[in-house]
Amino acid sequence: MNKITVERKKWESSLDSQVSYQDGQLVIEKSTTILFDCNNSTQPLSIVVKPNVQVSLIFQSIDTKQNITYEISENSQVEIQHLSVDGSDQVMIYLKGEQAKVSYYYSTINRKENTYSITVEHQAMKTESNIVNHGVNLNDNALRFIVNGIIPKQSIHSVCNQDTKIIARCANTSFIEPNLLIDTNEMEANHAAYIGRFPDSKVFYLMSRGIPLEKCYELLLEGFLLGNEKLEQSQKKWFFQYLKEQKGGKQNE
Amino acid sequence: MLLELKHLYIKLNDKKILDDFSLTIQPGEVHVIMGPNGTGKSTLSKVIMNHPAYHLEQGDIVWNGKSILSMSTDERAKLGIFLAMQDPLTIEGVSNSEFLRTALSEKEGKTVGIFEFLQEMNQAIQDLKMSDDMLHRSINQGFSGGERKKNEILQMKLLKPQLILLDEIDSGLDVDSLKIVCENINQYLNENPQASLLIITHYPRILDYIKPDYVHIMKDGKIQKTGDLSLAYEIEKTGYHGINDVSELASHE
User: What pTM does this model have?
Assistant: First the structure.
């Protein structure tokens, strides 16, 4: 698998010929998978996806404040799994060509004050975006999600979906700002936003099978953040260690 | 005595849900509670399992001679009380196998080996004529109403309880599925003659398959009449109107 490691401002990459990298810009010419391992980084990153390719990108990031920009060309599909611990990243996605599609699954464990924003601009017709943001706020700091979908006139027959949830395990100081800026009638847009606890009914269901409260939360958090079946076991394990480290965070009773 | 429910009182929004409700269940007995909608039948099953939405104002719940009022839901489940729910929830991201292996490990007090677990699961899946892939799917996600009810019985078979509470297990089941579910319950009772069963239902249909020792008619938060199977068929003919004779079967009230 292609891999890019970013430690503060130092970049290391191990890439095959399908990907070229120069001055912070990745150009993806053919279908491929890339793993990004980012630690303490503020380095901007630009990813250009050429036409007719399928790309899978996996991010593992800790303490990052990165500007990440995607330009996705016609008939290309990009799936991004972003596992973040304390991220304040700004993500900008341009769907530049017809039938360009992006699916973005962002899962974050929050322990500090963080604002994550993601904007998708549909610049061509028949484009599609599915943005799923799941965050768990482990303490009294605020986690902020700003989620924008921009669909101008020319982007008819496009689909723009946003689904954003934050589970607050302590005081609820988080917020979600979902925006759909639509300038055409012929398109489909959906958004859902939820901030709160895990429903008591779900906790009760698990406990009624003999599973103690704290273990129930572990199962629910793991399902909430890592329910995506496409993630590999090693990635899930990497992410889940940060939840287990933070035993202090408990859902308000 | 396995379970004694002693003079239970519950109010919800100033309405009496359980009003001096009493019932005793001996090992190996099969009890049925029937009654009109909104009479407190489902509340009763949830109170036994300590659902957070219901707080007992008076009364006691005694298990094998000891009060379990101070016990949490998971502790009650570990005693051997199992509630098969009327409307089993979907829990996204938590697979059936992960959930059940966790529950089984909690019950056994040690991590259950994957081989042993899969052997038991596969047998139960076959018995209930369920699809093999249910193991890897999220809890009840994409399940039909019938599959959800079968999943409850599958959990029962794995967790091997002493007392089974079936809350309208027959609702949402077609004739064939009801037969399969009841066959599995009967098989379990045959293999575990000390296990007891409390069936909560509106209709006597399920009693064509599972023969009860006692049928109780519940109305206005308490048992109004107790009899045998013939009482259930009488109710089917005449309805619940006119049921106000307090049972003379004192041992069950």
Answer: 0.87
